[in-house]
Amino acid sequence: MFDRSRILLRCITQALQEAVIAFDEQGQIRFWSPQGIHLFGYSEEEMMGQSVSLLLDSGEADPVDWRARLRLPGPTVAAADCQPWSIEERGRRSDGQRFVMEMNLWFWHYDQERYYTAAIRDQRDRDDQPSSNMRAYVNRIAISALLEVGLEALPLSNKLEVALNIILTVPWLAVQRKGSIFLMTEEGDLEMVVQQGLHSHLLQACRRVPLGHCLCGRAAQQRILLFAPHLDDTHVIRYDGIHPHGHYCVPIIAKQQLMGVLNLYVDDGYQTSPEEEAFFTTIANTLASLVERGRVEEQIKHLADHDSLTGLPNRRLFLELLDQELKHAQRRSQSLAVMFLDLDHFKAVNDTLGHEAGDQLLMAAVARLRQCLRESDTLARMGGDEFTVILPAIGHEKGVVAVANKMLQVIQKPFVIQNVPCRIGLSMGMALYPDHGTTREELTRCADQAMYQVKQNGRNHFRLFQISAD
Q1: What share of the chain is helix, strand, coil (3-state, %, to 5)?
Q2: Residue 190: pLDDT over 60
Q3: What are the φ/ψ torsions at residue 356 (nearest 5 degrees)?
Q4: For the residues of 116-155, what is the DSSP string, one character each?
Q5: What's phi and psi for 74, nearest 5 deg?
Q6: Rounded distance, CA 204 to CA 20, Å?
Q7: 3-state secondary structure (DSSP) of residue 311
Q8: Which one, of 27, 96, 29, 92, lies nearest residue 57 by Cα?
Q9: Side-chain half-sphere of 299: how many Cα atoms within 13 Å?
Q10: Would the pTM of this model clear 0.90, i.e. be above it?
Q11: What is the separation of C-alpha 244 from the centre of its chain, rounded to a whole number of angstroms?
């Protein structure tokens, strides 16, 4: 999981006095910062994959009960409910020398697995270190963690969820364990993308926030960090029983483009500090890079998974979605239908009026087909004038037939392309889960065969796959 970001993290953690390590639930070390060799005498190559118990002085005890020594929380404890914790433990260097080490630990989840991060230093170095420098070190660790999240192959919303949790668990900050991140929409307002600990009323009232509205909207409109120690007149979104509190609202800006707003809570009457505001500005700049990279990755993924003309899922994504729907149908003991569609006489229009007119006809046909489907249904383009449909939880054969009849009716109506009336038809084949198959290969083959039979028998109709009497 750390391969893509190890080089960047090594560069960042080079400047820290602490040794920064990460290990999994089994204690296997997955990341080893450059300072690890200075503190323990072990190189990264020596420690990758080794047990974290090697760093603990066992004394007379063997083996080391490393989970208890590090005070790791139980498996039922969620990351959102656990503050970072600090311990002092006996460490052992590679040459056998013992020392007292100070460890700051926290944990997070990735791909349903738990991982731990520890910043470790020799306790003897602590007394000479001013508290401001300690904060600077913690800040660097938080920034490096955000950069690491930005490099992971996760959806943008998941990255922001992890990022928000990192921000809310920085030990020296006075923020409460709740907040949210808004992103700008194409319509020009703010949309709450991730949140932690917010009241259910706010989840609805703050789902979309216009620019200039409430404190978050004002921070976005003015593009400056806004702080309010109380619920003043600028805090227009309220609900019965709301507790007094203050706010940091920090605009997220990349290359002079407003990306969103970071919204954090503080206790009522809290007084801000220049150091805190500077840190939040740095955090917002890091979030801006994370959002920018995440959107580029999502755009690339969308282009790989969708047809460039219609925007519909392509063949690859259709097969992935069909696998997912089949798993849902199996778990819930529900039916499912797969449809293969072919536009009749489309080639004649394309050859007569040209490819531009053909593209316009395809887009118009897709718009009509979508009108016949539910939001939960999937319409995909397999290529050319061939399409597929997934109808989850369709219930029974009559439901599939009803959808097919609607599609025939809307497609048979004339299209006007470049001021020329055009008529096309629709040949459809359908297969049902589990009646005609339980795998995507079986269902797509049956639906394709049924469509072929329709085309062999005059086209412009539909047929449900029939199991041979043989």
Answers
A1: 40, 25, 35
A2: yes
A3: -65, -45
A4: EEEEEEEGGGTTTS-HHHHHHHHHHHHHHHHHHHHHSS--
A5: -70, 165
A6: 40
A7: coil
A8: 92
A9: 6
A10: no
A11: 32
Q: How far apart are CA 446 and CA 431, in angstroms?
A: 6
The top-level CATH class assigned to 169-305 is alpha beta
Integer Cα distance of 162 and 159 in angstroms? 5
Class of domain 315-464: alpha beta
Does this chain's domain 6-129 share its CATH topology with 315-464?
Answer: no
The answer to whether 422 and 349 are in contact (CB under 8 A) is yes
Give CA–CA dist 57/41, Å, rounded: 14
Q: Are 20 and 119 in contact (CB under 8 A)?
A: yes
Exposure string for 108-146, b = 16+ CB within 10 A, e = fewer: beeeeeebbbbbbbbeeeeeeeeeeebbebbbbbbbbbb
Among residues of the chain, what percentage have pLDDT more than 70? 91
Q: From CA 283, how far away is CA 210, in angstroms rounded?
A: 23
Rounded mean pLDDT of 331-341? 93
Count CB-CB contacts under 10 A for residue 37. Answer: 17
CA 47, distance to chain mean position in Å, is 31
Q: What is the rounded distance in angstroms from the CA atom of residue 46 to the CA atom of residue 373?
A: 58
Instruction: Report the first-to-last Cα separation within the chain, whole angstroms.
Output: 52
**Alpha-carbon 353 to chain mean position:** 44
Question: CATH code for 6-129?
Answer: 3.30.450.20
Tokens of 352: 């007569």
Residues 89 and 55 sit within 8 Å (Cβ to Cβ)? no
Mean pLDDT check: name the lowest of 191-195, 213-217, 237-241, 420-424.
Answer: 237-241
Which pLDDT score, from 0 to 100, does residue 1 have?
Answer: 44
User: Rounded to 5 degrees, what are φ and ψ at 206?
Assistant: -105, 15
- Sequence ranges of the domains in the chain: 6-129, 169-305, 315-464
